[in-house]
Amino acid sequence: MASLLALISAVAYGAADFLGGFAARRATTVGAVVVSQAAGLAALALVMPLLPAAHMHAADAAWGAAAGVAGSVGVALLYHGLAVGPMSIVAPVTAVCAVLLPVAAGLLLGERLSATSAAGIALAVAAVALLGQDSHHEDGSRGALALVRSRGFRLAVLSGVAIGCFLVALERTSAEAGMWPLAVSRSVSTLLFGGFALATGRAAAVPRPALAPALACGGLDMVANALYLVAVRQGQLSLVATLASLYPASTVLLARVVLGERLSRVQIAGVACAIVAVVLIVGGSE
Question: In 3-state terms, what secondary structure has residue 236?
Fold first, then answer.
């Protein structure tokens, strides 16, 4: 059941990321994030009274707040990366970076890393290099230079690290806390982005063409977070986090179908490696 929930959360995460990047291209990144975060918080507030009673300890609130900070940074960098770079590259790079940290945390918590998982991690590194290749130089002669210069790529790496911290922080909460850690997390992120918009004078308003995607993004992201939280409380962190990190599959599919994005042969190989890498890590964690 944990694996199934994690896979469903991956689909929801991927769709939410596509919608978030879509909204950020038609509004400011701050505006898209503020609206999506507030929408997710509102959706959770409507559902909370229908859920079983839960009791949150101080440690749960602290981990929830930490998740809120990390998630805020990760989401902001991700949506900005999706707005300035190809979604089919930004999303897989973010996923690969995001999964490595939970796997490392799982090892520190006593989970064992098999040879298959180790191979998956090595393949993930190769995927990052391939995804950073210059699409105009498929022979890879300028791959390293393109990798360094790619703004979307750098944003994706930083976003992945922050999202990895978010996934670990949520895992540290107790089952008896229910969805309250998510409520704390989303409240923190909404306040952070709202405060940032006010302090910097950045426009938090979202034009009408971007409003529906931003609202849908917030709702789907909250659904994904809730499914991940339930799954990680039932299964191992390394396994569940890696399954949840398969979300680029739906992001890439939507980007190709809706936006018509195309990749070079080298970058297609990178996308394939990224997906295979997370599958290997999952298989080796069972």
Answer: coil
Give residue 71's identity as a one-letter amino acid code.
Answer: G
242-261 burial, b at 16+ Cβ within 10 Å, e below that, comes to bbbbbbbbbbbebbeeeeee
DSSP conformation letters of 53-76: P----HHHHHHHHHHHHHHHHHHH
Average pLDDT taken over every residue of the chain:
82
Q: 257 by DSSP, 3-state: which?
A: helix
Residue spans of beta strands (DSSP E) within 159-270: none
At position 226, the amino acid (one-letter code) is A
Instruction: Mention every residue, 6+ apart, whose C-beta is less than 8 A from residue 144.
Output: none
The pTM assigned to this predicted structure is 0.81
State yes or no: pLDDT of 167 exceeds 90.
yes
Backbone angles phi, psi at 253, to 5 degrees: -60, -45
User: Which sequence spans correspond to the domains of the chain?
Assistant: 2-285
Q: How far is CA 178 from the centre of its chain?
A: 21
Q: Vertex 182, ends 25 and 46: CA angle to 5°? A: 85
